[in-house]
Amino acid sequence: MIAILTTPSVLARRWGWAKGMSQRDKIETGPVVVFAMQTQDRPLSIADPALREGLAPRRASVSRTTGETDVRVSLNLDGTGQCTVNTGIPFLDHMLHQISSHGLIDLDVQAQGDIHIDDHHTNEDVGITLGMAMHQALGDRKGMTRFGHFVAPLDESLVQVALDFSGRPHLSYGLIIPTERVGTYDTQLVREFFVAVVNHSQMTLHLRQLDGLNSHHIIEATFKAFARAMRMAVEVDPRRAHLIPSSKGVI
Ligand SMILES: [Mn+2]
């Protein structure tokens, strides 16, 4: 219980425990000491907020208006998964929640589009604006891990995502979605969404469906894996926290 309330290094300092203590000392002072000795010299975690010190905040707000849609996206890549989305397309809202929640990205998406025609323009323009916001928030990409991958199961579905914030837009789309629609959502729009995100965030993205029968599950597993892969790629690399992650020195 004590170990939970304070950090091991604080405990070690407060009670005078040191690296050189004997095995007998450890045994006499109980299990908390053993815990402190094991973890007081832990390396910085890849997700440690201290690594962001001195780097620009990774937030962006982008508004994009065309004759077909009006889209506003605000995001914080170093967020906690706070999400407010209203695109007028319920299934797309559900998928944007996955990106925010599993990517730990604070995300606010408000869109008004010509959904009286169909969802195509709004779906694509949300993807474009989200990609633009990601590109803007990443800035010079200093410190980021850059590559990310994840394999997400959702019941019978299993989807693998690998991505690289390479500066070179590319999508390999390996989903085979068995039905034309999920609810009212046209499943062809999944590809359109990722094409838009990839082009405007300048990301290389590979989506591989390893298993799956249910369209809703396949798509949702894809967004969950995408979110986790993004989270990995966006986290600061503690071994080059203030460098641009490229052998060329620029992305
Ligand atoms: Mn769902």
Structure description:
- The protein is an alpha+beta fold.
- It folds into two domains: 2-39, no CATH class; 51-240, Imidazole glycerol phosphate dehydratase, domain 1 (Ribosomal Protein S5, domain 2, 2-Layer Sandwich), CATH 3.30.230.40.
- It is built from eight helices and ten strands.
- The chain has helices at 2-5, 8-14, 23-29, 31-39, 90-103, 120-138, 188-201, 215-234, and strands at 59-65, 69-76, 83-86, 106-113, 147-154, 157-164, 170-174, 181-182, 185-186, 204-211.
- Strands 1-2-4-3 form a four-stranded mixed sheet, with helices on one face. A four-stranded mixed sheet has the order 5-6-10-7, with helices on one face. Strands 8-9 form a two-stranded antiparallel sheet.
- Helix 2 crosses helix 4, helix 5 runs parallel beside helix 8 and helix 6 (120-138) packs parallel to helix 7.
- It is globular, with a radius of gyration of 22 Å.
- The termini are far apart.
- Mean pLDDT is 85; it is low at 1-43.
- The chain binds manganese (II) ion (MN).
- The site of manganese (II) ion has 3 residues, from helix 8.
